[in-house]
Known about the structure:
The chain has helices at 21-28, 30-33, 42-53, 64-83, 143-159, 191-209, 223-231, 243-270, 296-303, 309-316, and strands spanning 6-8, 88-91, 95-97, 105-106, 110-114, 117-126, 169-176, 181-188, 275-278, 281-284. By secondary structure, the protein is an alpha+beta fold. The strands form three sheets. Strands 2-5-6-7-8 form a five-stranded mixed β-sheet. The protein has a three-stranded antiparallel β-sheet with strand order 1-3-4, with helices on one face. Strands 9-10 form a two-stranded antiparallel sheet. A hairpin with a 2-residue loop joins strand 9 and strand 10 (281-284). Helix 1 (21-28) packs across helix 6 (191-209), helix 3 (42-53) packs parallel to helix 7 (223-231) and helix 5 (143-159) packs across helix 6. The protein is globular, with a radius of gyration of 25 Å.
Amino acid sequence: xxxxxxxxxxxxxxxIGGSSVLPIMQLYxxxxxxxxxxxxxxxxxxxxxxxxxxxxxxxxxxTRSMKxxxxxxxxxxxxxxxxYGAESKAWSDQSIDVPGREWQRITPDGWxxxxxxxxxxxxxxxxxxVDRHGxxxxxxxxxYETLQMMTYLEALEYMRSPLFPRFxxxxxxxxxxxxxxxxxxxxxxxxxxxxxxxxxxxxFWREHVLPRKPPPSSGSELVREYxxxxxxxxxxxxxxxxxxxxxxxxxxxxxxxxxEDLRDKLALSIGSARGxxxxxxxxxxxxxxxxxxxxxxxxxxxxxxxxxxxxxxxxMYTKKRxxxxxxxxxxxK
Length: 333
């Protein structure tokens, strides 16, 4: 397929990107991908896309570490190209709306040529915590990285654009901030697997995005933020609970009690250790960061001790704003 390509600076304008694929595959293929560590849920993907498509304002989910990684990508790409002996290279840094697919946008980092063969390249920054990658030089990247790369390879094959070479393989290059070393993992294009990924993403778009029907919210951190973005601060009076809401409230209380009990038992078990390492994670039980607070009233009294000045200044510069909604459950015992 050859077509004119819409290439714009990297923005998420309400389409499914490569980094969103794992939660969608977990939704439709739970046995194959359900156990893979994911940094977001299918609901998170849906809520973010729905907010973009309908002009809702939600807070950015990007952490400082993610923003740092994005700023370093070009530097790491050039550095890796030298380390791996690339004969030629091309940095992309563009978002591409895939022609013929209203649901898809891809953001490949770039590509290079080694031993006369082009490879699509995706650069990742690895922090100091958990490393779930396998042996460098193999295909043992994290599941979300492999799916992201396979998505790009399938989309570029589907497009058949003259702006890109034909890729039979992608390479995920991971830079460890702690060891200052590169690792790399290859992804060989599998047409059947690529088509299944595209089919699941299109199904997600058709079943959830277009009708604005949220997928299950299990594990989501955006549910309440999305609700506030949709409904705002103007709330209706209390109403009677449905049978389903009554049951969910009872179950929520039971789970809260159980979770608190398990946390207490973990704290006692961990004892003097900073924490314990899990298979695929870690429990931290260290000291909290030292907090610093300034008593600005005392500072003001010290600077301007005149009677009445402080109260007048307080009235002038005090602003009120609506607080965020909180969900509290109280049941009659």
